[in-house]
Design goal:
Layout lengths: L9 H8 L6 E4 L8 H6 L6 E5 L15 E4 L6 H7 L5 E7 L4 H5 L25 H7 L2 H11 L5 H14 L5 H8 L7 H17 L1 H15 E11 L2 H13 L18 E3 L9 H6 L7 E7 L7
Parallel strand pairs: 1-2, 1-4, 2-3, 4-5
Antiparallel strand pairs: 5-7, 6-7
Helix pairs in contact: 6-7, 6-9, 10-11
Length: 305
C-alpha cells in the first residue's frame, strides 16, 4: 500500500458533515481514503458511503466494506451514478478539491514544477489532453484566457505569444524544458510564478472549474433537507466559486428573491468565516497552508420545487 500524507483538516471535515450513522454520504475525491475511511468508521450497517475518483491509482488503497461503493469517475457525473445506484437523496457531500499529495509526489504525473518528467498533469490517465497538448496545440487566444483566468498570470499575453512562437521550432514535452523556457518570462517570485502557470495548465487539463460548478449545482438536488455540503478549496478561484454558491445558490453569487422580496436560497452557512488549518497542522502538513474549508446546510424548503 502506498504511503500518503495525512488528510487536511480531517476533524473539521467530519464535524462539518455532522454524520448520521445510518446516513448516506459522498466523498467526491477518494484519493488515499484519508477522509473516506474515517467517515466509514462513523457509519453503522445501515449507512453507506459512495466515493468518486477519476484516478485509477487510488484502487490500490480502496477500503473493503459492505457499506462502501467506489466509483471510478469524475464527480461531475455524480447524478448519473447516483441514479444508477437508486440513490435520490444523501445526507452529506464532502469535496477535497485540487491535486492530492501523492499525485504531486509522483514524478511521472507531471503535476508539480519540481517533479520532473513529462508535461502530463492528467488526474485521469485515460484522458486524451495533457499539459503538452495544450502548450503545443491551443490557439494563442485560448492560452491567454487559461493563464489569466486560471493562474492569474500577470503577463499571460506575452507568455502565450512566446509559447506559440517557440512551438513552431520545437514542441514542448518535458517539465524541465518548459521551466527553462519560462526562465526569461518570470515576474516576481520565481516559485509563485511557476506555481501559477502550472496551476492554470492543470485546471484546464482536468476541467476542474467546470467539474466544481457541476458538483455545486447538483448538490442542491441530491442533498436532503438538513444535509451538509463540505468543500475544501486550495486556490482563490475555487474558494470564490464555493463562497458565492453557498451564499446565493449560484456561482454568480447573486441572491434571487421571491415576489415578496424574501431571499430564495438553498443553503444556510454553518461557518460564516472560512475555516483554515491550525498552527499545529500547518507544521505537519504543507498542503494545509492554502486550504480553506466552507460548510453549508441544505434548508428544509427545497427552493427548486
Amino acid at each position: 500500500m502506498t504511503n500518503y500524507h495525512t488528510p487536511v483538516m480531517l476533524q473539521e471535515c467530519l464535524e462539518g458533515l455532522n454524520i448520521n450513522p445510518s446516513g448516506i454520504y459522498i466523498d467526491v475525491t477518494y484519493g488515499a481514503g484519508g477522509h473516506s475511511k474515517p467517515i466509514l468508521n462513523r457509519l453503522d450497517a445501515k449507512g453507506h458511503l459512495y466515493s468518486f475518483d477519476k484516478d485509477e491509482d487510488v484502487r490500490r488503497n480502496l477500503v473493503d466494506a459492505a457499506n462502501f461503493t467506489f466509483i471510478h469517475a469524475d464527480f461531475r457525473y455524480i447524478h448519473r451514478f447516483l441514479r444508477y445506484y437508486n440513490v435520490s437523496k444523501v445526507d452529506g457531500i464532502l469535496a477535497d478539491l485540487g491535486v492530492s499529495s501523492f499525485q504531486l509526489d509522483s514524478s511521472d504525473r507531471g503535476f508539480g514544477y519540481m517533479s520532473g518528467g513529462e508535461l502530463n498533469m492528467r488526474m485521469n490517465k485515460g484522458a486524451t489532453i495533457t499539459a503538452a497538448t495544450i502548450l503545443n496545440t491551443y490557439p494563442e487566444f485560448d492560452l491567454v484566457a487559461i493563464f489569466s483566468e486560471y493562474g492569474e498570470v500577470r503577463n499571460s499575453k506575452t507568455l502565450a505569444k512566446r509559447i506559440v512562437s517557440r512551438r513552431k521550432a520545437k514542441k514542448f514535452s518535458t517539465i524541465q524544458d518548459f521551466i527553462e523556457f519560462l526562465s526569461g518570462l518570470i515576474l516576481g517570485q520565481r516559485s509563485r510564478y511557476l506555481a501559477q502557470v502550472f496551476q492554470a495548465l492543470r485546471i484546464e487539463v482536468n476541467k476542474e472549474m467546470f467539474a466544481l460548478q457541476s458538483l455545486l449545482e447538483m448538490s442542491v438536488d441530491f442533498l436532503k433537507p438538513g444535509g451538509r455540503l463540505v468543500v475544501m478549496s486550495f486556490h482563490s478561484l475555487e474558494d470564490r466559486m464555493v463562497k458565492r454558491f453557498m451564499k446565493a445558490g449560484n456561482v454568480a453569487g447573486e441572491i434571487e428573491r421571491d415576489m415578496y422580496g424574501k431571499p430564495n436560497v438553498p443553503f444556510k452557512l454553518i461557518n460564516k468565516k472560512v475555516i483554515v488549518a491550525s498552527e499545529e497542522e500547518l507544521e505537519l502538513n504543507s498542503r494545509s497552508k492554502s486550504a480553506k474549508l466552507r460548510i453549508a446546510e441544505k434548508l428544509q424548503i427545497d427552493v427548486k420545487s
